[in-house]
Amino acid sequence: MAKKAVATLQTGSKRLTKAIKMVKSPKSGAYLFVESILPAEKVNDFLGKK
């Protein structure tokens, strides 16, 4: 399975999280890194998607 990394960022009153997901490309078979900065509540949804 792909590796997952999560870092917490704080900007003002919002608490944001930078999530990095390693995804295998179906076309070439190589691994890609997908990054996203989102609220902490949505991290599991982001990491759970394919």
Total helix count?
1
Low-confidence stretches: none
Instruction: Kindly report the average pLDDT value.
Output: 81
The helicity comes to 10-25%
Q: Specify the structural class.
A: mainly beta
Strand adjacency order, main sheet: 1-2-3
Largest sheet: 3 strands, antiparallel
**Radius of gyration, CA atoms, in whole angstroms:** 12 Å
Helix and strand pattern = EEEH
Proportion of strand residues: over 45%
Shape label: elongated
Separation of the first and last Cα atoms: 11 Å
Query: How many E strands?
Result: 3
How would you describe the overall organization of this protein?
This protein is mainly beta and 50 residues long. 12% of the residues lie in helices and 56% in strands. It contains one helix and three strands. It has one helix at residues 43-48; strands at 4-11, 14-24, 31-39. Strands 1-2-3 form a three-stranded antiparallel beta sheet. Strand 2 and strand 3 form a beta hairpin. It starts with a strand and ends with a helix. The model has no long low-confidence stretch (mean pLDDT 81).
